[in-house]
Every structure is written in C-alpha cells, then in structure tokens.
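Reading is simple: each integer encodes one residue's backbone shape. The lines below illustrate:
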Amino acid sequence: MKMKLHDYNEMLKEELKDSEFRREYDALEEEFDVAKQVIDLRLKKGLTQKELAKKVNTSQSCIARLESGTYRNLSLSFLRRVGEVLGVHPHVKFEKLRPAH
C-alpha cells in the first residue's frame, strides 16, 4: 500500500512534538528539505522512482536514497541531472552558521 504524502506530513507533524526527534530532524533539515522537494516534484510529474531513475540514468535505489533524506555525498552534477528531468535546477547557497544552543 502506498503512503500518501499527506499522511507523511501528518506523521511528521506528530513526530516533531518529541523534542529529541525535533533536535535530530533539525540537524538534518537541509537533507530532508531536498528529499521532500524531490518527492513532491517527482509525484507532480507522475513518475515512479524507477521511471525517474531511468531518465536520470541511475538506479531506483539511488533515487530512494535521495528521497530518504539520508543520502550522503550528493554531487551537484547528480542534483542537476535529477532537476533537469523534473524541470527545475538546484540552487545552493552559503549561509552563516547558527550559534550552538
């Protein structure tokens, strides 16, 4: 059974009430944001992970890792390839570090 994105958002809202989960989520906020954007864009294009992978010339498991928010060592060239298929381009910028709490 497929999990609807709406269901994911509701689940996340509940999980974020837990302070430890919130702390860990915030630490990975950028990765999760990229993952959520890719999922949203892929679904709007009506593509499965497998179909997107084929168009990007990569594996379905690679797309699944990207969408998990835990993909490490992402290259800008890979994000460009994914973005091109999805009709967007990545935007990267540097910001000042937030002070530690």
The chain is about 65% helix and 0% strand.
